[in-house]
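REQUEST FORM: STRUCTURE PREDICTION
Request ID: SP-0412
Submitted by: Lab K.M.
Chain count: 1
Length (residues): 78
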Amino acid sequence: MQLSKSIKANFKTLQKACKAGRLAVLDCQDAKTGDSVPVIVALNGDGQEYEFVPLARMFVGNPYDELKPPNPEGGYHG
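STATUS: Completed
RESULT:
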């Protein structure tokens, strides 16, 4: 799978926000399931008002149980 331009742009935004100290974790609600979800956000603002830009969801459980890493020969490790 190739990473899309929007994923690459979000990652650059994440890097910039991290360097600037403008990251936060917010407890958000999944619009489809209603579940509580921790989300990494960038903070845009002037010091008095802020906009939260969602960048990534955090794992609630053990990520090693939820993910399979890519296999260099194709597909994913099982």
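NOTES: Strands lie at 23-29, 36-45, 50-57.
Reviewed by: T.R.
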